[in-house]
Structures are given as C-alpha cells and as structure tokens.
Amino acid sequence: MAAQQSQGIQTLLEAEKEAAKIVQQARQYRVQKLKDARSEATKEIEEYKKAKERDFKAFEQSYAGTTSNAQTAVDNETEIKLQAISESYTRSKDLVVKKLLDRVVLVKPELHRNLKKLGA
C-alpha cells in the first residue's frame, strides 16, 4: 500500500509539473501575443500618421497658392492706399500750415465770457 501511495504521489507530482509547464507556456504565449499586438498597433499608428501627413501636405499645397495670391492682393491694396495718403498730404500740407499759422497769429483781444457777465 505504501508503494501504491508513493506511486500516486509520484503521479500527482508529475501532473503538477506538467500543469506548471502548461501554465508557463500559456503565460509565454500571452506575453508574445501582447508584444505582437503592440508592434502591430504601432505599425498601424505609424501608417495612419503617414497617411494623415500626406493628406495635410496635399491640403496645404492646394491652398498655398491662394494664400500667396491673397497676400499679393493685400500688399497691392496697401501700396495704393499709401500712395493716396501721400498725395493727400502733399496737396493739403500748405493749406493746413497756413490755417494753423492764421489761428495762432490771429489774436482778438476781448473780455472772457465770465468776466463779461460780472460787468453787465
């Protein structure tokens, strides 16, 4: 009976070793699957980034011409307005200086309005 118990214990120990080996293989398999999934996800992310970057570059190139055209139009309009302001300044500067000098030099001696009320 001792031999039978010994044989039963030996069988249980072997079964336990086999189960531990199976569990270890399952863990290794799971770890490998996680690594594969991560690397696959990284590849997909990189492909997605590249695709979006290409789309953005295409979008940017399609609208790059319109921004340069708009900038050119704004520059031309600004130049025209600056010329108009310069011409207006050139035409009006003498008249403005004359009006200012006339006002500064023109002195009418009269009583202040508050002083007039007191005297009346």
UniProtKB/TrEMBL annotation:
Subunit composition and interactions: V-ATPase is a heteromultimeric enzyme made up of two complexes: the ATP-hydrolytic V1 complex and the proton translocation V0 complex.
Coiled-coil regions, chain positions: 12-54
Record's keyword terms, sorted: Coiled coil, Hydrogen ion transport, Ion transport, Transport
GO molecular function: ATP hydrolysis activity; proton-transporting ATPase activity, rotational mechanism
GO CC annotation: vacuolar proton-transporting V-type ATPase, V1 domain
Taxonomy, superkingdom: Eukaryota
Family under the similarity heading: Belongs to the V-ATPase G subunit family.
InterPro entries in UniProt: V-ATPase_G
Protein name: V-type proton ATPase subunit G
Function: Subunit of the V1 complex of vacuolar(H+)-ATPase (V-ATPase), a multisubunit enzyme composed of a peripheral complex (V1) that hydrolyzes ATP and a membrane integral complex (V0) that translocates protons. V-ATPase is responsible for acidifying and maintaining the pH of intracellular compartments and in some cell types, is targeted to the plasma membrane, where it is responsible for acidifying the extracellular environment.
Organism of derivation: Collybia nuda
Pfam family, one: V-ATPase_G
Keyword Coiled coil: yes
